[in-house]
Amino acid sequence: MRLPLWRLRQNQELDEEIQAHLREAIRERVESGESEAEAERAVLREFGNVELVKEVTREMWGWTAVDSWVRDLCFGFRQLRRNLGFTAAAVLTLALGIGVNTAIFSYSYADGLLFRPLAVREPERLVTPFHITKDGDNYSSFSLPDYRDFREQNIVLSGLAAYSDFEASIGESESRERLPAAIVSGNYFDVLGIEPVQGRFFLPEEDHVEGTHPVTVISYGLWRRMFQGDPHVVGQKAASPAIPLRKACSDASFWWPHRWHSA
Amino acid sequence: MPVKKPYQNRIELVQGTLDLLILQTLRLGPLHGYGIVGAIRARSNELLQIETGSLYPALHRLERQGWIAAEWQTSERRQRVRVYRLTPSGKKQLVFQRDRWEKFSEAMTSILNPASEEGPA
Q1: Distance of CA B109 to the CA centre of its chain
Q2: Which of B2, B52, B72 lies at the smallest CB-CB distance from A21?
Q3: Who contacts A116 (Cβ-Cβ below 8 Å, separation ≥6)?
Q4: Across the interface, do B52 and A55 touch by the CB < 8 Å criterion?
Q5: CB-neighbour burial class of residue A55 (10 A; exposed 0-12, middle 13-18, buried 19+)
Q6: Nearest residue of chain B to residue A56 (CA atoms)
Q7: pTM for this one?
Q8: Which tens digits make up the pLDDT trace of A137-188?
Q9: How far apart are CA B65 and CA B90, in angstroms?
């Protein structure tokens, strides 16, 4: 294992220091009459295990732990290289797991809903009411009459809007598509504080009688994609056998805070 | 892996006193490793023979603590030797350890030579 330069030097200096000590001890013994061989033996015996001393000192410096981890790491890599089949299986499994997690968190609900602020005026003040029964069940679905009652008697929230998801057929004959849609209360966009890009949202009188004044708001993304951003589309009657609709247009590809889709 | 246990035990037992001996020895002037061993032997009237195997780990440990500092010098015989000297913080540490040693010594004395009060039989 290759050591960094300064550590090599540190080890070398330790060697040199100990060698110098041994030499001097030998010299002293020789001067007082022993033979070189005898002196050397005696000195080494007295000193103890030279390598052991060096190791104890090096250990005290504290790099032995790092060294042993690095060595283990290298061993691990060598083992992986030798068992390519196993390595491939492990790498693929990890890649799959990591990839799936990344995808989920990049492209889906999490990203749109959790990590980006809602494209409404004051997202931190947006709440969903829940209905909690005596048994402890809770629902976030309400009937229309209930909603109307709540709205009339509401003194807590600045506004109460309702929505109901469905799938709509949008588009002219060949380019017709099934898209996620929702029926919303007339005050939906007011409560959320969104301004339309083109056209207008709903007028108060349109909300009063059921079945009259159907108005469609399409997302900006859909507007560009299906109608090429043609401003004349706004305000027209939509040719849809399901529900005759008028169109208006809202900004942000994300005009629908409770559900995120790339339109 | 080499057998380290017995070695470490020996160092630990003497560690406190060895540190004190080294610091005190260097107070009287800088020395290299071999010189320290000789000085301790001489000043203790040949009573204390430092195990050289414990000396170098101790020296490097004290150096790491910043109580002694080392530099390479050339001896009269034109050899490179690593000479250690006491640092200011080392001087403080010496005072502290001497104090502790004296307390310890007093304690030992009073245990080994109990006063003339009657102890429990």
Answers
A1: 21
A2: B52
A3: A254
A4: no
A5: middle
A6: B57
A7: 0.52
A8: 888 888 888 888 888 888 888 888 888 877 777 666 676 777 777 777 878 8
A9: 9
C-alpha torsion sign, points B86, B89, B91, B93 = negative
Three-state DSSP state, A50: helix
Q: Per-residue DSSP letters for B23-61?
A: HHHHHT--EEHHHHHHHHHHHTTT-----HHHHHHHHHH
Closest CA in chain B for residue A59: B57
Contact B60 A14 (CB under 8 A): yes
* The one-letter amino acid at A201: F
Highest-confidence segment of A120-129, A200-209, A242-251, B52-61: B52-61
By Cβ distance, the residue of A46, A49, A60 closest to B60 is A60
For residue B8, which residues of chain A lie inside 8 Å, CB to CB? 56
Contacts of B78 in chain A (CB under 8 A): none
Q: Smallest CA–CA separation between B78 and chain A, in Å?
A: 11
- Answer left, alpha or beta for residue A195, where phi above 0 means left and psi between -120 and 50 means alpha: beta
B33, B51, B64 member nearest A17 (Cβ): B33
Tokens of B60: 């490097």
**Cβ separation B81–A20 shorter than 8 A:** yes
Does the structure show a pLDDT above 60 at A53? yes
- Whether the predicted interface score ipTM is above 0.95: no
Pairwise CA distance, residues A121 & A217, whole Å: 18
